[in-house]
Structures are given as C-alpha cells and as structure tokens.
Design brief:
two-stranded antiparallel ribbon; 36 strands; mainly beta; two-stranded antiparallel sheet; 428 residues; 0% helix; rod-shaped
C-alpha cells in the first residue's frame, strides 16, 4: 500500500530579483528571448526565439519525444518524473524510511525493507515497541522490542533507542546513533552502512553527490554529473542537442543553424572549414574560395603581390625572363635586372663594357669594323683583332707577305719594287 505524503508544487511565475537569469522585463508568454536565448524561470526559449511557458504543448519545438512535456527547459514525462509528477514543478516527497516515486502522474512512496507500512508510517517491526513483530503489536510498559519480540532487555549488539533495540550500524531510522534517520533522495533509497548514511539510486539513475539524477535527460548533468548543456540545448539520450529548428536551406551544425552555401566554417556540410593562402581570407560561395588582401591579386591558389613578384610581375603569369649573369627583379609591376659588379644593364642583358665590342665603354657604343679584322674592345676602348695571316700595323691589319709598306714587318717600305714573301723586290 502506498503511503500518504505531501508534494511541493512550483508556482507558475516567479518574481525576478537580483541575480535573475534573464533580462526580460516581464514573465509573459510570447515575449522574445534575451540576447543569450534565455527566459524567466518557468519559461523556455523555443526555435522561433519566443518564450513559452513550461508544460506548453509546443514541446516538439524543443525536440522532445512524443508524450514528453517541457518543464524548466527540460523534456520530462509527467507520468513518471518525481520532480514534475503530473505537472511541472510538482515534486514528490516521502516520509522517513520511504522512497518517493511518480507513478502514472501521481506521487507514491514505498517503505524500504525491512520497514513496513503501519498506519501511513514506515516502521521496523523487528525493533519498534509499538509494532513489535507486526503492526499495532505494542510491548507492555518497561519492555523493549528486540528481533520482533517484546523482551526485558536488548539483545547483544543492539542499542536501546526509546525501547527500540536497533543495530545503529545498519538502521536507516537510527544510523550511528538513536534518532539519526537517513533521508532518501528522489529516485533513490536511503541506506546505513557502518553507522553512516548513504544512498542507492534506482535503475537508470546516476548518483551525483547526494542526488540521483537521470543523466539521459538532465540538461545540467547530461551524460555525466556536472556536464551541463549550453543555452538553447536539451539533453537527449545523454547527449546535448540543439533545440532549434533550421530553415530548409540551412544545416544544424554544433547547435546552430548555418548556411552551407556561404558559411566558410561549414561549407557544403558541417565542419568543412575553408582555408586560404597567406594574405588571403577564406570564404564560401557554393564551395570554398578565398579573397586576397588589398595590394594582392589572386593568382591560382595564391595571393600575389604583382608589384614585386618576378613570376607574376604586373599580372598573373607574367614571368620576368631569366638573364645570364644577372638577377631578375620586379619593381612596381615592371621587370628589371640587377647585374654583378663590372657589368652594366644593356638592352635587358648584363654586359661587360670593358670587353664587349658592341657596348665598349658604354651601352650601345659599337666598335667599327676594319678590313681583314674583327672589331674588339679592351679596357673599354675599341680595338681590332686581325684575321689569320694578317698583322696589326697601326690601326690596320696588313699582309706583311705582300704589303710594300709593311713588308715582312710593320713600317718596312719597299722602294719602287714590290713585296714578295715578306721581301722587297728591290732594296728600299
């Protein structure tokens, strides 16, 4: 038989004083949630950002299962929840020695063994002198109840607590000492172990401190003790889940509605983050892409400063040419050249103006050609290099085997005769 006991009912509205959880000005259903998605106590924030009274039929907006009701932002079964039994805030409270339960929306309590229900109280028939051996079997004055029988004194190992002979190491009514009763938590039973009060939680409930909680549905202890769900989330099967409902063109990612076409952190699907190269910013535009910082241009998969990049000088793909002996440079988007010491930049090339006959002493200064010779440059001055068989005499290349003015060697002049094989026909 279930015991009779009181229930504690929560009021439908609360007066908001210092420390109130919400900045809403009034506790009226239909107001918008605050910036953090919160409402006054007794209300929760639905998918549309509106405060809805606990117990509202719109529990589906919170992602609750069929038959569940929202109470203080939590999906509960009013038929079995001992903290919301038959209605939000209706808490079941049992007398000493009993465990409170909610059955079919009504609070009930059952005495813990070895206690039995005697007239709406949980008593121990093995030690209670008013119910010694059974309900209403009272011991005579001066007698004690020990092991369910009225005796003159308590049995060894028990303590006399007002004519009740109890084992204070195990009795939930006299734990450790007379009249020190252990209280049972909701969804659990009280125990006494070696004179210390303890609790045992019912099946499917987890012990969190001195409470027995349903970590499958408790948003403050979701999956494990102390694991609280964030604002706007509910606890379902021990996992925090968002209570929001997204539009058809959105995805729910980590409890938030995102646009997979334009969200760079969830591009196309949840958790697909777009990346960008150096000097770039990722973006999503029906696929991952990126924008470049001012002063940089998108060239393939990179952001390039085309004002100084020799591979993309002035524009993407415009590569400055390689030059022998020189180093290509890009300055203000124009290709240029840096030459080593002793060389000058002449028509896009590194030239030694000390030896180049087309740029002798300066760019563009060409050494003139001469008969029987090739133009040459030495120390920046024009010179000649005579062809084979010819000798440089002054500024001309001559054949000293035939030249009457340079017969055999420079400046050897033949007289009226000619020069043959480097010998004058007649003495000079």
């Amino acid at each position: 038989m279930a015991l009779r006991f009181f229930v504690i009912a929560a009021t439908a509205a609360a007066l908001c004083l210092v420390g109130c959880e919400s900045t809403l000005p009034d506790a009226l259903e239909g107001l918008k949630c605050d910036a953090d998605g919160r409402c006054l106590p007794g209300y929760y924030c639905d998918a549309e950002g509106t405060c809805v009274r606990d117990g509202s039929s719109t529990a589906s907006a919170m992602g609750c299962d069929n038959g569940e009701t929202v109470c203080d932002g939590q999906c509960v079964l009013l038929a079995s929840d001992a903290q919301n039994c038959g209605g939000c805030g209706v808490t079941c409270v049992a007398p000493l020695g009993a465990a409170a339960e909610c059955s079919k929306g009504a609070c009930v309590a059952n005495c813990q063994a070895p206690l039995v229900d005697c007239g709406g109280q949980c008593v121990d028939p093995t030690s209670d002198p008013r119910h010694c051996g059974g309900c209403s079997k009272a011991c005579a004055p001066g007698k004690v109840c020990t092991d369910g029988a009225c005796q003159s004194s308590c049995a060894t190992g028990t303590v006399n607590c007002s004519s009740a002979c109890v084992n204070t190491a195990q009795s939930v009514l006299h734990c450790g000492a007379c009249d020190q009763a252990c209280s049972a938590p909701l969804n659990g039973t009280a125990t006494c172990r070696q004179g210390q009060c303890d609790i045992t939680c019912a099946t499917s409930f987890q012990r969190c401190g001195d409470r027995c909680l349903d970590t499958n549905s408790d948003p403050a202890n979701c999956g494990q003790c102390g694991a609280a769900c964030a604002s706007g989330q509910a606890c379902k099967s021990g996992e925090c889940e968002s209570t929001i409902t997204c539009n058809k063109d959105q995805l729910k990612c980590d409890g938030a509605c995102v646009d997979p076409r334009h969200d760079p952190n969830n591009c196309g699907r949840c958790d697909k983050a777009c990346t960008a190269p150096e000097h770039g910013t990722p973006k999503c535009n029906d696929g991952c892409d990126f924008d470049c910082e001012p002063g940089y241009k998108k060239c393939g998969a990179a952001c390039i400063d085309t004002s100084q990049d020799i591979a993309n000088c002035g524009d993407c793909g415009h590569e400055c040419p390689l030059v022998a002996l020189g180093t290509g440079v890009c300055n203000a988007g124009k290709c240029g050249l840096t030459c080593p010491a002793g060389y000058a930049v002449c028509a896009g090339a590194c030239i030694d103006t000390n030896s180049n006959p087309k740029n002798c002493g300066a760019c563009g200064k060409t050494c003139p050609a001469a008969p029987n010779a090739m133009p040459a440059c030495s120390d920046g001055q024009c010179d000649l290099t005579c062809n084979a068989g010819f000798t440089l005499c002054g500024k001309s290349c001559v054949d000293t085997q035939k030249d009457a003015k340079h017969c055999g060697s420079c400046d050897v002049t033949c007289g009226k005769g000619g020069c043959r094989a480097g010998i004058c026909d007649s003495p000079p």
